[in-house]
Amino acid sequence: MIVLDAPRQAEASLVRAADAPSDAPFSDAPFLAAFRASEAPMVMTDPALPDNPIVFANPAFCHLTGYAADEVVGRNCRFLQGPGTDPSDVARVREAVGRGEPLRIDMLNYRKDGRPFWNAMTLTAVRDEAGAIRSYFAVLTDVTGTKQAERALAREKDGLAQDVEARNLALQAALDQQTALLHEVDHRVKNNLQVISSLMLLKARRSRDPACRDVLRSMADRIGALATVHRLLYSLSDVGRFDLRDFAADFAADLEAGLDPDRIALTVDVEAVAVTASMAAPLALLVHELAVNAVRHAFPGERHGRVTITARRRDDSLVLEVSDDGIGLPADIDNPEGFGRDLVAMLVRQLRGRLAFEDLGPGTRAQVVLPLGPGH
């Protein structure tokens, strides 16, 4: 640090030094008067003397520190340091003095009565015309109030951060609990659906009426598709999202297991499109109905062919297509798929989508466009 204010003899020597502008700390008496009158605490040291002592300190410095002029002149500024002064700050000042470089630093210093204060110090080397350092000049500013406000703000920020962290932990715990509950619900629903599907298949095997058997097996397949949805939701960490590609892969494996691979081929090309969990069940039923209807109705007798399932995200919509190269739509029948076609139309309306059938000649394409929204 650097301090200034001198006894009368030091002041007199500085005034006399005005006659030697290249050697004196001040080059003229008016500057010395301005230095003394300044409200900013100022101090000057002489590096040519042992231990770079203070040679001048103005009254503002004495008022700030509580020391009289004759108590500081002749001493190195380190007497302002105390137990709370950061050694790294002291080292920075020492390095700046050693290199003759300017420095701006905030240091914790102590007044004569032991009270600490934060000192924002600007240190400058004063050089002669030849560039040699003649003295060091420092301006001090008491920024204790600012530092206290900064520390209070930091404590408040830390308190807020801890409060936010505690709230986040509480919210995460609540979310984990809710997720576990939803997983348990999906698990139980899946088990119940599988039981219902098994009961219907058991009834179908015991039924003597072929039409009744077909209806029961169709319903069991639909329930099985819903069970697959809940099984996938149960395995996901994000219970709010459902990946259509995962369902399509599982569904295709089950569907292929019941097909004659030498007669009907199945191709599945579905993107990893995440939809809301609320869309999962109706969307799964939609894929099931369109694909199963194509397999059952497009290839009568021993006809060979292929069924293709595709799904793509297009802007904010999901485009689902199920196509085949079978016999196509009969021109004289409005609803060739019966209940399945009605169910598809109902599901599309529920999902606020659009449904279109196209005769490919040969074959049929069913296209469903469903809104997803930017957040899906």
From TrEMBL:
Presence of keyword Mitochondrion: no
Reactions catalysed: ATP + protein L-histidine = ADP + protein N-phospho-L-histidine
Coiled coil: none
Boundaries of every PAC domain copy: 101-155
PROSITE patterns: HIS_KIN, PAC, PAS
Keyword line: ATP-binding, Chromophore, Flavoprotein, FMN, Kinase, Nucleotide-binding, Phosphoprotein, Photoreceptor protein, Receptor, Repeat, Sensory transduction, Transferase, Virulence
CDD domains in UniProt: PAS
Domain Histidine kinase positions: 184-374
EC number, as in UniProt: 2.7.13.3
Domain of life: Bacteria
InterPro entries hit by this protein: HATPase_C_sf, HATPase_dom, His_kinase_dom, PAC, PAS, PAS-assoc_C, PAS-like_dom_sf, Sig_transdc_His_kin-like_C
Domain PAS per the UniProt entry, residue ranges: 27-97
Single GO molecular function: photoreceptor activity
Protein name from the UniProt record: Blue-light-activated histidine kinase
Organism: Methylobacterium nonmethylotrophicum
